[in-house]
Amino acid sequence: MKDADRWDERYRTAKSSVNPAQVLLENRHLLPQRGRALDLACGLGANTLFLAEQGLHVSAWDFSSVAIEKLRAAVRVRKLPVIPEVRDVTSQPPEPNSFDAIVVTRFLDRSIIPHLIAALLPGGVIFYQTFLLEAVDKTIGPKDPVFRLAQNELLELFGPLRLLFYREEGRAGDISQGFRNEAMLVARNSPRG
Ligand SMILES: C[S@@+](CC[C@H](N)C(=O)[O-])C[C@H]1O[C@@H](n2cnc3c(N)ncnc32)[C@H](O)[C@@H]1O
Known about the structure:
- This protein has six helices and seven strands.
- The protein is α/β, with parallel strands linked by helices.
- The structure holds S-adenosylmethionine.
């Protein structure tokens, strides 16, 4: 079975989209006030709907046709400025200079990171959140360690950008508290002074 088919299977039984990712909820003040946003590997589109409700025109890409069809229905009901598209983002990453904001949550393909950086317009901002190798609860997220971030890896991957926000706690301190299992980063395409 192809990867996209496996995701289709999951989404066929999924009821509706969950909450937007924490990296967006905590940093909504860093979003551009207008312009074009991309929710890459959007799934059912909780982030997409959030971005559109903030006034952005959103492209929402995922290779699961089931997820995209469900998102299309949600967008139609809410009459939001969203273009959902079935798209394999590994073979078709975004074009250079095309978005004011890019959001990626719970998806990791290191090969496309340079394309994401290049796709940001001047002043454009990336919001990234995904799973860590050093997790408190490894039952959440991908089983294959290749799809989990090493320590500080998001910082390295987005090194060419100006860092606005970063959080990664691993298993440090009291593991019953805090933001665990994932890392999150917000960074801006702006010249370094
Ligand atoms: C864990 S889900 C995350 C969905 C959403 N971003 C979220 O945080 O709820 C991972 C998503 O990546 C999508 N995906 C995986 N590989 C992809 C690829 N090569 N191109 C497009 N989408 C892909 C899957 O279909 C799935 O919707």
